[in-house]
Amino acid sequence: MTTNRPALLFLHGFPLSPEMWKAQKAVFEADGYTVVAPDLRLEGAMTESGLPEPVTMERMAEEALAALDRVGIDRFAAVGFSMGGYVAFALADQVPERLAGLVLVDTRAETDTEEGKAGRREMAAKVMEEGASAAKAMVGKLLAPTTQERRPETAREVERIILDASRVAIASAALGMAMRPDRTAMLGAIRTPALVIVGEADAITPPDVARSMAAAIPGAELAVIPQAGHLANMEQPEAFHQALSEWLHRISIAMPCRIL
Ligand code: MLT
Which residues does 246 contact at the CB level (< 8 Å), separation at least 6? Predict the structure, then answer.
């Protein structure tokens, strides 16, 4: 079958799950897109230190490719949110020929600072000790203050998703993110159409980070989502859908692709 719509691979963030893409899955499937949203909450083997082995972004990319292979998808547009963006960079590195598009949502190309890496290890140890509830404090950082005030149900939903994750999966991903390579040098070599999306009040990967990332990728477009923090797709789904679907429409016209 041929279609001018690329299959969409939605890659979730940390410490979240594919459930963060529920609204997007419904909207884009209804619009005729094939949507794949793999669960990247993988558990590293436990070590004597009491911490699991890290699950790297490359390992998560392999998991995503396996999910695509299971449904026979060759080419796809990767939509990676935050940690999912790190996984999308790994895919752009591993299988650039399979990418029909790259959508980087509230993410960054830089690796962690030494302080950031130490913070990840502390978080992994805390989560192993106290369980997923130790990661609940992230809700306040993921959502804009306006979302927390006006859409408390979104905050509750995010908290529920976090609490649903196993402590080993959260710790493994935190340690894996600390090991991720810096991707800034690859930005200028990206040849696939790219869209950078950011919430205007994103406190984790602020708009300036998104702007410089978009400026470094040849031909990349930038969409800033008003009244959204880090979790822009859950906070302002309509604006997010509009930005993504208009861009998909533009690239679909420019680049027909085949679904097997
Ligand atoms: C995420 O939302 O996936 C995380 O904020 C990513 C990170 O901690 O670097």
Answer: none
